[in-house]
Amino acid sequence: MSETNEMKLEFDSRPCNESFARVAVASFMTQLNPTLEEVADVKTALSEAVTNAIVHGYQNEVKKIHIECHIQDQVLEVKVTDYGVGIEDVELAMQPMYTTKPDEERSGMGFAFMEAFMDELEVESAPGKGTTVWMKKRIGRFERK
């Protein structure tokens, strides 16, 4: 039987809390003995998900963001949820360079970065109900030196 562990966070959708979320999830994943590259990958993907919730989901209004992390075997699962405006067309929103805020110099690369740095990415959203981003990463795939 494999060991599992989990944690949940809830925090205000303030830009200053994005770094808190990164540190909290990075601290949680240390039990898997990740490489610095693996930690950086997860922190980058998480940062994009939290920033999307703040900027797009809540449109810079202060509401709650929820993060759940689950570890089983050597796999870290991270779930980021907001209850904001939601995404009308998830497939379109996941296209590189697509942004709903070009006037704010948004690059439209958030989902592309999440896909690049994690092993799996799933996005579920509904207009007026919010968005949930699920990400998975296997830790320890590389031979340690």
What's this, in brief?
By secondary structure, the protein is α+β, with helices and mostly antiparallel strands.
Describe the structure.
The protein has helices at about 15-30, 35-55, 90-95, 110-115; strands spanning about 5-10, 65-70, 75-80, 120-125, 130-140. With about 140 residues, the protein is α+β, with helices and mostly antiparallel strands. A five-stranded antiparallel β-sheet has the order 1-2-3-5-4, covered by helices on one side. It starts with a strand and ends in a 7-residue tail after the last strand. The model has no long low-confidence stretch (mean pLDDT about 90). It comes from Jingyaoa shaoxingensis. Pfam families: HATPase_c_2 (PF13581). One of its GO terms (molecular function) is protein serine/threonine kinase activity.
Features:
145 residues, alpha+beta, Heat Shock Protein 90, 5-stranded antiparallel beta sheet, 4 helices, 5 strands, 29% strand, globular, sporulation, transferase, EC 2.7.11.1, nucleotide-binding, HATPase_C_sf
SSE order and pairing:
Elements: E1 4-12, H1 17-29, H2 36-57, E2 64-72, E3 75-82, H3 90-93, H4 110-117, E4 120-126, E5 130-138
Antiparallel strand pairs: 1-2, 2-3, 3-5, 4-5
Helix pairs in contact: 1-2, 2-4
Shape annotation = globular
Report the structural category: alpha+beta
Helix residue percentage? 25-40%
CATH class placement: Alpha Beta
Q: Termini separation (Å)?
A: 28 Å
If classified by CATH, what would the architecture be? 2-Layer Sandwich
Taken in chain order, the helices and strands follow as EHHEEHHEE
